[in-house]
Specification:
The chain is an alpha+beta fold. It folds into 2 domains: 42 residues, no CATH class; 59 residues, no CATH class. Helices cover 25% and strands 12% of the residues. The protein has a 3-stranded antiparallel β-sheet with strand order 1-2-3. The longest helix is centred in the middle third of the chain and has 17 residues.
């Protein structure tokens, strides 16, 4: 048995095959960019730098709702100008933003904990 390898997705067919393989295994892919292959079979996929993570703090008493909307619009524009088509934004359930995330255009992608690790 060969070792798994990671390769970039280069075709729409690869994308659809990865989405279907994940779905058949009971999982969902979020902005996949790379395949994990073993013996030419898709055994995984992932997003390697495909979607930026937007992590924001704004003061709960010094930033108004209108200011928050303007800041989000500016952040979206900045990300779009950098060539991004989507972003991921962690938001805790105790955040004042949480009840409004759908209004900001976000869709929940699951109930899980995000982990952080330095690369170097």
């Amino acid at each position: 048995m060969s070792s798994p390898v990671i390769i970039p997705m280069t075709t729409e067919q690869q994308y659809h095959a990865a989405v279907e393989a994940a779905r058949a295994d009971g999982h969902r892919l979020i902005t996949p960019s790379h395949l994990v292959l073993q013996n030419n079979e898709i055994i995984g996929a992932g997003s390697l730098g495909n979607a930026p993570v937007l992590s924001v703090w704004t003061h709960t008493k010094k930033v108004s709702a209108l200011q928050s909307m303007k800041l989000w619009r500016n952040a979206k524009l900045t990300l779009a100008q950098a060539g991004h088509k989507q972003c991921i934004m962690p938001c805790s359930k105790n955040s004042p933003y949480y009840p409004h995330m759908n209004k900001f255009g976000f869709s929940p992608i699951g109930d899980f904990t995000l982990f952080w690790a330095p690369l170097i």
